[in-house]
Amino acid sequence: MLITLLFSLLVSSVIATEKDSALPRLTDTKAVEAFIDSAEVVVIAFLEGEESHVYKELVAAAKRVDSVPVVICTVKEVWADYSVTSDTITLFRKADNHQENIVLAEAKKVEADGLVNFITTNEVRYMTEYNQVTAVGLFNSEVKSHLLLFANRGSKEYNDLKKQLEALAPEFTGKFLFVLINGAVKSNSKSLGYFGLKSQDLPRVGIYDGDSDMKWLLPEGEISPERVQEFCQSFLRGELKEVKQAGLESKTEL
């Protein structure tokens, strides 16, 4: 009787562990669309099944990057809607309407560490904090114009400015990537210096255009969503190209 009870408990424990380690499964296009729309960044594993080594590695990676939801889709009819023809791990993000793929047939080796790196380097959000990891995804994006918020974490205006500009970012999807640069981090001093700024000058807002390698600062004053919105629109209208850039000679502004 005791042996039977212990065996039952062991089986229950194994089943629970397997259940806890399983990724949610999507079975139709509507479910996939809803999932992609549910967060700024998501990952879908388009795999034939859950038996592969890659699936186990992805489960392990998903546990380490809990800021990004991960699911599996095994229905090949759905794959075609996303131009997937073979086992592929895909990251979808809203900030630039981008789809980043790892085609498993073309990958030399897929392990949890590599998948964590794939997710974190491509985790570009409506407002992305700049660091050595996120820089990869930011500069690899097809959107080359960046709206930059320079602010010192811990300052009284830091959180409010971040929230206000984060709320504005969706309006400029596909046109700008909104990037937060923490001036309190020493490694970001080079980015500040590129705009002729120092930590004590913050908060400030700037625009960097990767296509032309040009940059501008919003004039000093209140940083409001309305002013930043007009700043972005003036760039899109081509008006900033006639304005002296930031960081040249003395600090130059609009």
Describe the fold and architecture.
It is built from 9 helices and 10 strands. The chain has helices at 2-21, 29-37, 53-64, 76-79, 112-121, 134-140, 158-168, 189-194, 225-236; strands spanning 25-26, 41-46, 70-73, 88-93, 98-103, 127-129, 145-151, 177-182, 204-209, 214-217. The strands form 2 sheets. It has a 5-stranded mixed β-sheet. Helix 3 links the parallel strand 2 and strand 3. The longest helix is centred in the first third of the chain and has 20 residues, at 2-21. The radius of gyration is 23 Å and the shape is elongated. 32% of the residues are buried. The model is unreliable at 1-20 and 249-254 (pLDDT under 50).
Short characterization:
With 254 residues, the protein is an alpha/beta fold. Helices cover 36% and strands 20% of the residues. It has helices at residues 2-21, 29-37, 53-64, 76-79, 112-121, 134-140, 158-168, 189-194, 225-236; strands at 25-26, 41-46, 70-73, 88-93, 98-103, 127-129, 145-151, 177-182, 204-209, 214-217.
Helix and strand succession?
HEHEHEHEEHEHEHEHEEH
Shape field: elongated
**Count of DSSP helices?**
9
Radius of gyration: 23 Å
Q: Sheet with the most strands?
A: 5 strands, mixed
What average pLDDT do the residues reach? 89
- Alpha-beta content class: alpha/beta
- The low-confidence parts are 1-20, 249-254
Number of strands: 10
Q: Strand percentage, roughly?
A: 15-25%
**Largest sheet: spatial strand order:** 1-3-2-4-5
Helix content: 25-40%
Measure the end-to-end span: 83 Å
